[in-house]
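User: Quick sanity check before I run a bigger batch. Here is a single chain. Can you write out its predicted 3D structure?
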Amino acid sequence: MKKYTWLIVLGVVLLVVIAGFSWYVGQRNSLIALEESVNGAWSEVDNQLQRRSDLIPNLVATVQGFATQEQQVFSDIANARARLAGAGSVGETAESYEQLQSAVSRLLVIVENYPELRSNQNFMRLQDELAGTENRIAVARQRYNRSVQTFNARIRMFPGSIFANQLGFGAREYFEISEAAREVPRVQFN
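Assistant: Done. Predicted structure follows.
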């Protein structure tokens, strides 16, 4: 009888160990999958920001042909693009994106002073491409922030918090805009 008791106890212990190990592996794999989801969503944001960055020189070149005296805006756009390309973190990318957005907005204000530019087919096509890209960036940012929210919630809640700390998973940064960028721009028609 003792022999069977030890075998039953050993079997139960073995089942508990296997179940615990399986649970641990499942938690770990789940956290890794969520982290990869965040990384993939960030890649989509980065891809759309690059697409936008690639469109802007064409827009600038088109406007430069009409508005040669607006060199400061062109310089600001070039500097903002360079900062965006060199951004190393989500926060730096968001800040650089805002600076580029501001410079492009100033460029579009300049366009209002050149009616012949507003009717130029190349300019209109570039402006449409830029607007479409802005929509793609907004969607990509939304997906990224949703992935970050899911990941951050998972690593903060039990039991994910235990495994996240042990495995070195930390909270990810949201792609947010500053308070200054939330101000509604004024549009004036002369």
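Residues 184-190 have pLDDT under 50 and may be disordered.

User: Great, the batch can go ahead then.
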